[in-house]
Amino acid sequence: MAKKKAKSDDTVRPLSKNIDKLIHEPARLMIMSYLYVIENSDFIFLRSHTGLTDGNLSSHLSKLESAGYVDIKKRFKGKKPQTLLKLSQRGREAFEFYRKKMEQVLGGLNQK
């Protein structure tokens, strides 16, 4: 007797192809989530709330900036450099699309 495929198999596979892998990486997902909610931040605030190192945060922000998801502006506050971060419109739309796709994927899973 053939096994019937679970609904989750049929639902998850096609939807998971549409998941933005750039956002899906845990550190970048955390960065995008913070910037989506608070709208803008400076580097120090984001570093302290994500727990990422300077280099790690900087590397992930560069990837998000290259994709057009994050706007990065550097300025001086007095004599100290300050890096300001915010989601671009494209980043906001990409995050909303990602969130909806993940809700569909997770909503399609069978509970045991």
From TrEMBL:
Leader sequence residues: none
SUPFAM superfamilies noted in UniProt = Winged helix' DNA-binding domain (SSF46785)
| Domain spans labelled Winged helix DNA-binding | 28-105
Q: Which InterPro entries match?
A: WH-like_DNA-bd_sf (IPR036388), WH_DNA-bd_dom (IPR027395), WH_DNA-bd_sf (IPR036390)
PANTHER family in UniProt: BSL7504 PROTEIN
- Indicate what this protein is called per its UniProt record: Winged helix DNA-binding domain-containing protein
